[in-house]
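Retro notes - structure team

What went well: the batch runner handled both jobs without manual restarts.
What didn't: labels got mixed up in the shared folder, which is why I'm recording both outputs here explicitly, each with its sequence directly above its tokens.

Job 1
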Amino acid sequence: MINPIFFSYSNQIMTEMPATFFGLLAIIFLIKKEYYLAGLSAGISFLTKFPQGIIFLSLIVFAVFIAKDINSDTKMPLANNQMTHSCLDNNVICYNKKRIKDIKKISVGFIIITLLFLLINQNLYDDALKPFKSATTFQNNYFRAKLGFQHFN
């Protein structure tokens, strides 16, 4: 996400700065357990620069695999293969209802802002996916011919 090119272009108005800001804001909201705001910030980051969609996927992965519920009775497996209660099939991943609700909250925040973006595009361009199609042609993507995307002016 951050490299020397990032700093060399930081004095110019480009999409990397706001995309990085909202991506980092999403991570901060996730740490503070503000899941709707984390999803909303990840959505804004994605809409600012489409490859930042990886932030949303990272939030989901964090919520599923890494986050520990402090006030939950679900425990992670012990190091010597002894399992505590509520774990499934000796896997490291332990699910509970709170974790699934957190994932839903992150997803709702992301989907709300993304759907708003798609609805605006549908009204403006009569094609909700036009910015995505334009981005693939702008980057001279090899797969655009295979997918049938054409250049839009």
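Job 2
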Amino acid sequence: MDSFCPRCRLVEETCLHALRDCPKVAAFWRSVLPKKLAPKFFNGDDVTVWLETNLSFSEAAVFWPAFFGIAVDLLWESRNDLVFYQYDQTWAYVHLRATDIVFKRYKDYMRARASHNLMTRNLLKWRRPLPLSHGHWLLRLNVSGAYDPSSGT
């Protein structure tokens, strides 16, 4: 097995070439890039910085970091399918699969969040304790629980 890129066969393959710079992969990225990211997306030669930048970029699109991470994983998987099984995925498949995964995860997140909010509303309210016999009150103190500092609940 040689060290040339299995997709374009033009240059020696590096991680950055396989995930970003190969002309075939670059065409995929150009078709999905948010406009704010496009000018800087192909700059730099450090794969770690490129990954960190895109996984933490939230200005361009709400779903970009999630979509980006999933797309990178699918691109690497499709590269391995080509190298080891001579099976070449279409870019439409990578795009549709990444989008499907991101939106499924978002729906799961929103469903869990709604369930949590409903549970919080039902559990976090004061109720007057029931009187014991002969008019005496019982004091109950619940000391188990969890606190989320970001939401204050």
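One thing worth noting from job 2: The CA atoms of residues 16 and 48 lie 9 Å apart.
We'll revisit the folder naming next retro.
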